[in-house]
Structure formats: C-alpha cells, structure tokens
C-alpha cells in the first residue's frame, strides 16, 4: 500500500517548521517569540493533529468512559457468567420450599385442617406455583430481537428504534429495555416485561402467603428447637470410665447409660425446615415486594426504569425554560395497564391476567402509536 501524498506533504511541512522554529530560538534566544507566520502555521498543524482524535463531542465523561472501558467489560463478563449461577440459585431455593411444602406441610394440612381450608390451600398454592413457573420460564427465554431497526446504536453500530437501548451484558440492543436482570440471566424488554412483572408479583404473593400462613408453625418450631437445646443440656447422668472407676466414683463394671432424647432426628429436621422456609419467604417477600411495587408505579406512568431517569432529566431541562414535559408513552393509568397486559375485553382480565397466557404484547417495538387503545374496545 502506497502512503498518502497529502499525509507526506503535511509531515514534511511539520518537520520544516520545527527546524525553522529551532533555528529561530537558537539565533534569538529561548525567550524570544516566533514570527507571526510561523506561529500561525504551527497552530494550524496542531489543530490538524488534534482533529484526528478530538471532536466537539469529546468531554470528561467520554474520556472517563474510555478509560473505564476495560473495567466495564470485565463487569459485563462476570455478570454474564454469574447470570447462570443466579438462575440455578432461584431454581434451587424455590425447589427447596416446594420440597418442604409437599413433604412436611401437606400431610399436616390434610390431617389437621378442615375441608374448606384444605381446598383453599391446595387450590391457591398450585395456582401460585403455576404462575411462578410459567412466567419465570417465559421471562428467561423471551427477549430476542430479530426485527430490522430504524436508527443507529453508537455501541454496536446497528440500526435501532425509539425506546431501545444497548445492553453491554447481552451485547445487543433491546427493544423497550427496562434493565438487565441477573436473576433471569436476560434483559427485561418489550417482549418479556409482562412475564417479568407477573413472575415478581406471583413470587411476592406466594412468599407473603407462606409467611402469613406459616407464622404459627414458625413460632412453634422455634420454641421446639429451643426446648430441644435445653433438653440436651439438662441430660441426667454422665458416662464414667477409666479414672472414674479408679477414684471410686462408680463400682467396677458399672456404666451410666444416657437415656435417648425425647425427640427424633426427623422431628428436629422438620422444625428446622419450617424455620428455614419462613425466614426465606419473609425475606424474599419484603425485598421482591419492594421491587414489584416500584415496577407497578413505572407501569402506571407508562415508562421503564431507564426512561424514568431520562424523563426526569428532560423534565428538569424543560423546567428551566418554563415548559412542562409530558411523557409521550403515558396513555393514562388504566390504559397503561390495559396496554401492558394486553386487555381488550373483560374476559381478558381472567384469561390474560389471572391465568398464564403467552400472547404477544401490543406492537412490534419498532413504532409506537399515540394511543394503542382502540375506540371500539369494551370499557373495562
């Protein structure tokens, strides 16, 4: 490949000016000023060199992002790897609660509760379980974007539409991106946001149900464990062997046998399992409940987590000019929920909200109508 003549010409002019500037300093002293023509040409060349790596968009944030890029890359890589670990952790913890419920609690419910309460616990518990499993599976598997886009992403250099953002962990652009969830090992976006929210809501309701219904069992189990500890400490009789016989504590050949404990290993494990289940479900209910309430607020406002930050900054910017900012994707609180769940008639509150449903969301994520609610829809 032959070098560019323009580049060689600029290089030769730069070398000649450097030599002239050095000769001028040597002949007139280091503190003397260069001629105006030389300083002008020198400033012009510096501007040309700076233009190769500097532009008007460069600021301290861009410089810091460039310096921190290796750290961001490492964090994205670790998060992508830990995503699979978090998914396994969700499956293991949920399975442990189910094992305790089926092995320990279900026989207790069948033997002690009245028939109406048995029907309630079995019916609600299995409905809640189906909703959790279905929505968690759909949330982890649904988000891929195979639709051509209409604008350009500055990170992956591919077209993208409005409300789309680049995920460094998934290394792709996500339609209507809300956030990257490590517990799903997936991004929450246009095609799986409903699954994510329904999973959070179902899991929260399930944990609250276990926490409230198992409160008395937890108190009884905790008291039983404490009682077992005192029994172990208050055991009468101590085996005496060896020196004990020599100093006359016991006659030769006589050994004190400790009586068996009044509880079995199965009883102890049952009570510990109840304590484990109650503490885990109560903790998850508080943490996940807060997240669910936050996303419910966002859905009511017709925005995502990312758009919440963007809209706040835009509202502050317009307030300085005496203007009010209005979210163009906010169709009203009720309409936002209807768009989110895909409710078009009254029966959809049952078939698409209270029961598992795999229907697609409104739109394709590329374009957004002013109001997707049809005028001929049945008021719900």
From TrEMBL:
<dbReference type="GO" id="GO:0016020">
    <property type="term" value="C:membrane"/>
</dbReference>
<dbReference type="InterPro" id="IPR001594">
    <property type="entry name" value="Palmitoyltrfase_DHHC"/>
</dbReference>
<dbReference type="InterPro" id="IPR039859">
    <property type="entry name" value="PFA4/ZDH16/20/ERF2-like"/>
</dbReference>
<dbReference type="Pfam" id="PF01529">
    <property type="entry name" value="DHHC"/>
</dbReference>
<keyword id="KW-0732">Signal</keyword>
<protein>
    <recommendedName>
        <fullName>Palmitoyltransferase</fullName>
        <ecNumber>2.3.1.225</ecNumber>
    </recommendedName>
</protein>
<comment type="similarity">
    <text>Belongs to the DHHC palmitoyltransferase family.</text>
</comment>
<feature type="transmembrane region" description="Helical">
    <location>
        <begin position="275"/>
        <end position="297"/>
    </location>
</feature>
<keyword id="KW-0812">Transmembrane</keyword>
<feature type="transmembrane region" description="Helical">
    <location>
        <begin position="117"/>
        <end position="137"/>
    </location>
</feature>
<keyword id="KW-1133">Transmembrane helix</keyword>
<feature type="signal peptide">
    <location>
        <begin position="1"/>
        <end position="20"/>
    </location>
</feature>
<keyword id="KW-0012">Acyltransferase</keyword>
<feature type="transmembrane region" description="Helical">
    <location>
        <begin position="81"/>
        <end position="105"/>
    </location>
</feature>
<feature type="domain" description="Palmitoyltransferase DHHC">
    <location>
        <begin position="151"/>
        <end position="309"/>
    </location>
</feature>
<dbReference type="GO" id="GO:0019706">
    <property type="term" value="F:protein-cysteine S-palmitoyltransferase activity"/>
</dbReference>
<keyword id="KW-0808">Transferase</keyword>
<keyword id="KW-0472">Membrane</keyword>
